[in-house]
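Inputs:
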Amino acid sequence: QKEVEQNSGPLSVPEGAIASLNCTYSDRGSQSFFWYRQYSGKSPELIMFIYSNGDKEDGRFTAQLNKASQYVSLLIRDSQPSDSATYLCAVTGGGADGLTFGKGTHLIIQP
Amino acid sequence: DAMVIQNPRYQVTQFGKPVTLSCSQTLNHNVMYWYQQKSSQAPKLLFHYYDKDFNNEADTPDNFQSRRPNTSFCFLDIRSPGLGDAAMYLCATSRPPDTQYFGPGTRLTVL
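Outputs:
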């Protein structure tokens, strides 16, 4: 059974610092990796996706993938209070496969 | 402009009373997904349609059914809701291999 593991937190980070979120997955056949942000009571919002080993940067966000270690991470630079949310890591085997989500990490940015 | 629309946003039903949730999309994506997210848990895939082909997850209860009359619409039917079915129901769409986009969700309360 496919599993995605995340530390549930809460992870508390001072405003302006770097927030580091981590995720591991069990299925070596996973092809695509996603980070979603979810505010309380709202639906998930796509932040980043990554398909290849290495780093991918988009503004303040950097996703990192290491397929050999089955590890995905998300770095948020210059953290803002509006970044306070639950961050969901999700993986898929590709194609039309559904997403397998982790339970999410609750991130709190302290002003 | 809303691209994935879910109606209603909030649904209250009685124990055992059938309920239907609706999802529509303006993206012309050929894949539509339904996820269930209970409080403080990860979204869990129930099933998806690839065009007209229905794909049910092995552990989705028989109480949950789905219909896709055309490309734009997909429905989730819960034949006899139990208290354990109270959750946020999320519809997502994609055009593989692109990412999935989520609607705002329908929060279901079962009394």
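Remarks. The two ends of chain A are 40 Å apart (CA to CA). The longest strand of chain A covers residues 85-92.
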